[in-house]
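Sanity check record (used in CI):
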Amino acid sequence: MLCAATAHAAGRMPNVVILATGGTIAGTGATSTTTVGYTAAKVGVDDLIKAVPELKQVAHVTGEQVFQIASENMSNEHWLTLAKRVNTLLAKPDVDGIVITHGTDTIEETAYFLDLVVKSKKPVVVVGAMRPSTAISADGPINLYNAVLVAGSQDAIGKGVLVVMNDQINAARDVSKTNTTTTDTFKSTELGLLGYVVGNQPHFYRVSTRKHTVDTEFDVSNLNALPQVDIAYTYANVGPTAVNALVAAGAKGLIHAGVGDGSLPNKVRPALSAAREKGVVIVRASRVGQGIVARNGEANDDQLDFVVADTLNPQKARILLMLALTRTNDTKEIQRMFYTY
Ligand SMILES: NC(=O)CC[C@H](N)C(=O)O
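Expected output for Type II asparaginase:
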């Protein structure tokens, strides 16, 4: 099988496919100083590529417009379509890597979904921008250039799905948007970034110990929908309304975005427990954004038959639970998955 390694070994430039989905990287504003209040998802993939002629120096690049949306509108169906396209392309011997241009609001979710369902070791890089293409010092062109460099690099093979922004390489599992508007918004919590793109090449320093891509048990090739999993957010004075409404609306799984170490308020615990008795799988996560939610810590998970999210934030826990529910309803198995991926 040809891959980026053989592209380099054969002395040819890697073939990188850019799948465009929209977002600010494809956004346009009224003036060059418009950095908020612009319209996302306007510029087509051919123009994104044309705007960075330097790409030709590092890869043979082709583009496909998969969607043209702001990423707050990303749905499970979009993910399944995208994942199937990525798997089809990566199965081709002449494709060495893939770059996905994406809105930044849900980049971390799409990246983690792909990290769990892409069946290839070839590099997949998700990239976006915080400033629209029309802005002074737009970050899209350099981010796209860096993403293509990484996607065509043999050093990125087998590292899972990556998010490349602001000269930094992050693992899909651990990266999150941490600032609403600034270009240094993507951070990998305390677990740390994987490396940098500096001097026209990626530099890797670490990898995640969690399984991904070819080493997961998830297969989307025959899926046309995913089980309904929703998130109930907790705060001081919260009641059971959201949990009860989500269960009534048909949730098969619920992520509880608890306070602190995933604590359950007294007014929420009975609603979650009743949901579990109806067969809904409950995962305790935390709204804090860093750290482990400890099993049998702030709640007796063994007795309640709940699962803990480990270090996944609520939106990523939702993705893993959806995929877990395509395989099993057994909470012990699902807890194993949360400690594996
Ligand atoms: N910086 C961005 O990409 C945000 C734009 C838009 N809300 C999106 O996520 O697509």
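The two ends are 27 Å apart (CA to CA). If this sentence no longer matches the regenerated tokens, the check is flagged for review.
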